[in-house]
Amino acid sequence: MTGGDPRRAERVAEGIRTEVAMFLRDGAKDPRLRGMVTVTGVDVTRDLRHAKVYVSVLGSDKERADTFEGLASVAHHLRGTIGRALRLRAAPEIEFKVDESIAHAARIEALLAQVRVEPVAGEDAGADAQADGDDSSGTDTAA
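^ thats the sequence. predicted structure below, dont judge the formating
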């Protein structure tokens, strides 16, 4: 059994990502699944018994907490759906993990936009200090 296709886990992970995304878009009825949920990636063990599904949830802290409670509660149902859709003999256990990369990227973008709009404090003062320093150094060499 160890001589199987080495890319099978990658293919299964991609299939799981697609199925979870479709489920969240079309079939999720749990009212706790609030906020914008994005499936960012899936890691599957080589034996296909466990899958970590990374999701990013945009919304308030309360919405994020509620969403992860909802995801945990639908994981078992989702496992069966994935097993049937991907025709797996034994569907992997699904574990949802937080992926902060989208929120982190949005925060960086906001900070960069702020820097582009606001002049950096001390930038003009530094130029003035440089000009003052040149005048005093010229005076010092003459003395």
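Residues 5 and 11 are 10 Å apart (CA to CA).
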